[in-house]
Structures are given as C-alpha cells and as structure tokens.
Specification:
This protein has 134 residues and is of the alpha/beta class. 36% of the residues lie in helices and 22% in strands. Strand 4, helix 5 and strand 5 form a beta-alpha-beta unit.
Length: 134
C-alpha cells in the first residue's frame, strides 16, 4: 500500500520518540515489497549512526536510487540522534513509527516538524515488546 498511494524510491522509517525503534516495520516493508518487485529493495539500518556519517549515507541512498533502485532506511529518533536528520532529509518520503502506550505526543509532533510533515506518507503503530529490558 505504501508504494501504491504515492511513488517513492527512498523511504526513511523514523521512530516517534527517543528509545523507540522502527526496525521491525522497515524490515517488513522490505520483505513485502521484495515479493512484488523484480529488483530487490535495499534495506539499511542506520540506528546508532555516528556523527559525521549522515552525509555519506545520504550520498549512498541517492546513488542507489539514481541506479534505479529503491531503499528503505531505518534511523534513530531525530530527537536523540541529530545526525539522522540529514538522512531523513535525503529520503523522498518518511514513515513515522509510534509505539503504543508509550509515545509522547510532543515528541511525535516535534519529529514531524523537524523532518517536515509533507514528507510523511503516514504512520504505523507498534506493539510494545514483551519482556524487553533496558
């Protein structure tokens, strides 16, 4: 459904708040998308992206798309890792991941504002992981 509503070649999956992860959602998008495409969708996990690495990843994303590929990138919350803002801005579209029962509305709103509401295709809700310890 993400590819039917609006065309995109690069998608960033971003958690609505610090401490959350969208990696399961990103992997699911790639897995389902690869069933319907001749050319595989590239998956990149950019969680924990160090300072200075944003520009290189943004370049890799653009180069992959220019060669006719699609890419889905999972990043950290832009509120906790500002390096990820550069990656989010390099993607054509974004998807907001909202953990159920723990998301602060103010964090989600700030994330939308930092990346730009117009970039978002929508949001997905994530079930809290049971038995997860921090």
């Amino acid at each position: 459904m993400l590819t039917q509503r609006e065309k995109w070649s690069s998608l960033v999956v971003v958690p609505a708040q610090p401490g959350a992860s969208g990696i399961d959602a990103a992997r699911a998008i790639v897995e389902v998308g690869n069933q319907y495409r001749e050319k595989p969708i590239r998956f990149i996990s950019a969680e924990g992206l160090p300072p200075g690495a944003g520009a290189r990843l943004a370049w890799e994303m653009r180069a992959h798309v220019e060669q006719g590929g699609m890419v889905v990138v999972c990043i950290d919350s832009v509120l906790s890792n500002p390096v990820c803002i550069e990656v989010a801005m390099a993607a054509e579209r974004a998807l907001l991941c909202v953990p159920l029962g723990s998301t602060q509305f103010s964090a989600a709103r700030q994330t939308l504002e930092l990346i730009g509401k117009h970039r978002f295709l929508g949001s997905v809700t994530l079930q809290p992981k049971k038995g997860r310890t921090k």
